[in-house]
Design goal:
Helix content of chain A: over 70%
Strand content of chain A: under 5%
Number of domains of chain A: 1
Number of helices of chain B: 2
Strand content of chain B: under 5%
Largest sheet of chain B: none
Order of helices and strands of chain B: HH
Number of strands of chain B: 0
Shape of chain A: globular
Radius of gyration of chain A: 17 Å
Number of helices of chain A: 5
Order of helices and strands of chain A: HHHHH
Number of strands of chain A: 0
Oligomer: heterodimer
Chain lengths: 170, 50
């Protein structure tokens, strides 16, 4: 059971990495700079992945899942706020839609799935001592960790270039 | 805004180095800072004064 839960946390890190990478691809291919709310949604996603990373590094703990839920709730509230901005009929959406949905709607779906997944893992949760025995990262887990750190610092650089030290008005 | 990402970047490096002490507090602090930025954005956009 512990192996399955570790695998799920590992998968979450990779999913978040690819979602953020896709956001970057969209940003540069469609030449659309992210809005402040989009950046806060990225912060929420990085928070979710950091919680999953804590589970891999420090062992599976309820407090780490709690931090994942906090981050997902934060991101969800940001994306819901952006959805509500553009919910009125005949009101333009922000950015080019991907597969028929705007990026902030996709972000809302990602955060919803994170909370749903954590709830599912908690239902399957069985206390066992081997939680603390598998703390060494495997090669794919290490790669995921480095990719996560890379995409986080890429966001540091691009956000600093776009907004400087201001809170990024928009 | 970039400092939020920086906080999470530092947090991830601490996790990678397995520095357990204070990481959860730093995590919560980062989330609180993000909330402050969100409220700043909301009050700015809607003209609400808290």
């Amino acid at each position: 059971m512990t192996e399955i839960k570790r695998l799920l946390n590992f998968v979450v890190i990779y999913i978040i990495f690819f979602v953020l990478l896709a956001a970057y691809a969209h940003q540069y291919l469609a030449n659309e700079l992210p809005c402040p709310l989009c950046m806060l949604q990225r912060v929420g996603m990085i928070g979710v992945a950091s919680g999953a990373f804590m589970n891999l590094r420090f062992g599976l703990k309820g407090s780490h899942y709690g931090l994942i839920i906090f981050s997902a709730l934060f991101g969800m509230s940001v994306s819901l706020r952006q959805i509500s901005f553009h919910a009125c009929p005949n009101f333009p959406t922000f950015g080019t839609p991907v597969l028929g949905l705007s990026l902030y709607v996709w972000a809302f779906i990602v955060f919803f799935c994170c909370i749903f997944g954590v709830a599912l893992v908690q239902i399957l949760h069985v206390d066992s001592k081997d939680n603390q025995e598998h703390l060494h990262l495997t090669v794919p887990e290490k790669l995921g960790a480095f990719l996560l750190i890379f995409i986080t610092f890429a966001n540091v650089v691009t956000t600093a270039l776009q907004c400087g030290i201001s809170p990024c008005q928009g | 805004m970039f400092s939020l990402f920086l906080l999470f970047g530092i947090l991830q490096i601490l996790i990678l180095l397995r520095v357990h002490r204070g990481t959860q507090l730093l995590f919560i602090f980062s989330l609180l800072c993000s909330l402050v930025v969100l409220f700043h954005h909301m009050t700015n956009k809607l003209g609400i004064r808290l």
